[in-house]
């Protein structure tokens, strides 16, 4: 009966799993520890972590990247203690998409798993299958909180400092233009921080005075910011529309949930009902109050990829994507819930905590004290299981591929580029277009009865027809347009019947002709068989004779082979003796060669010494020759300089001579200008001497 506590569950409580938890897929299950008490839980995309009162760490689930820290990549279906950390007392844990963070009582931070974007904070991008220590936090003081998302990580200190690292392609770690950071970096908003949460591609933080900041991917309104704030989405932006002080925040795949003085605000994607507003809302770009929690009794919120959990006074409410039973509403209730729905199975329990993963939920609960009696429920505590109509029927022609394409989250786009090892392949195909060319003419009356129409296809959670949106855990199929398929099948069956009748008539005529021809062939074949039998008998006799001859030949060959083998053995013995003699001779020769080699080595050493001395002499001679050549070059250069000076003096003298001649020719001192050169050669010196 719903709400009854099982007698075998201890007072220390148990861990309940729902959905695809790997512990018990699609079936609600539970477990507890005999000698320890579970204190904290954390969920990643496909794995789960648990911390006990004694500080032990248990993990289970998918392990494709080594996120369980067990030293391997083998998936684990039951809680397994990390033996490598038995000497440490684990206090905090956070699970991302494919990695895990922990913090010990001594303030040591460890990380394990996928590291493609540096989300382990170890300064590189190499994945780890066992927990490795982050030395950075040894000098940062005690750690208050850890958070992890899709390839991002965060650590919050007691003093209010926030450090983040990993992928920043969408600004989800708030470090501005940086695209990737493989070591912790401080993110500051000018005041101490008290809470942090990491989604798939966006993050949120809360300050000590109750201010909410969001940053990262800005699509679908998951940041809850005004239009003028969206350009600055790569750094923390203040959400101004929530007036009450915020105490907690949780980030999902495409939506955000904020807890403010017991009230719950949601914003972002809501196509699965994860916003909890009671009706189908594709997205909400501003924070909206969830009416069910307006009385201020909520104390904890958690988000999965497309579902939400809220705890109030020890009761658990869930809403959103209900596939695989991850909402905890019963083994037969896998429908989407568009408003908060009470989990009746926990009426006799005090729910301590709830965490949501990619497609599962884990709840930590203890049985209520027997003296407390029944839980008193108010009118609005219990809500009917609510299933919205299929999205296409609800929105009619208003939904097209372009509208849904705009809603693709960064996570879906990333998975199209980088496929997960466990992701399902394509599960839909495009139906032919309903054009006149593809439709058959009207049907004529037929004796066949059309089978009854199948029930309408169930809601397609995730990818709508033609590939607009696909959830990674899609398991439903699409029927297509049934009446068109039926009409095509009936029409094709009528055509097939008429063709079969024609074929049968033609086949009968062909059979008669074949029977006649086969009779003639039988007679011919019988004659051929008789002749073949006679030929086979003759061939057998000949083969027997040949076998006898071959046997005689084989006996003779064996005798000859025996004789030849004996001769060969004798020859081999002689050869061995000769080889022994040759070996002795070779040994003697080796001794002689060794002596000769020693003599040659001595001669070579003497020759090498002589050559070295000659080389030294040649080097000295070459140096002397080089000095002589340098001197000769210098002398030649000096001679060339002297020659050049003489030539320049002669040139000057000739130019002066020609200048005076020209002057005299023009009638200097009244002399005639038309005399010959010989005249000037005689007169000029006299003239110069007179001057």
UniProtKB/TrEMBL annotation:
Domain RCC1-like: 38-294
Highest rank taxon of the organism: Eukaryota
Listed GO MF terms: guanyl-nucleotide exchange factor activity
Matches recorded under SUPFAM superfamilies: RCC1/BLIP-II
Main location: cytoplasm
InterPro entries cross-referenced by the UniProt entry: RCC1-like_dom (IPR058923), RCC1/BLIP-II (IPR009091), Reg_chr_condens (IPR000408), Ub-ligase/GTPase-reg (IPR051709)
Gene3D superfamilies: Regulator of chromosome condensation 1/beta-lactamase-inhibitor protein II (2.130.10.30)
RCC repeats, residue ranges: 55-106, 107-159, 160-209, 210-262, 262-314, 314-367
Signal peptide location: none
Annotated region described as Disordered, given as residue ranges: 411-435, 491-678
PANTHER family, sorted: UBIQUITIN-PROTEIN LIGASE E3A-RELATED, X-LINKED RETINITIS PIGMENTOSA GTPASE REGULATOR
Descriptive protein name: X-linked retinitis pigmentosa GTPase regulator
Lineage of origin: Eukaryota, Metazoa, Chordata, Craniata, Vertebrata
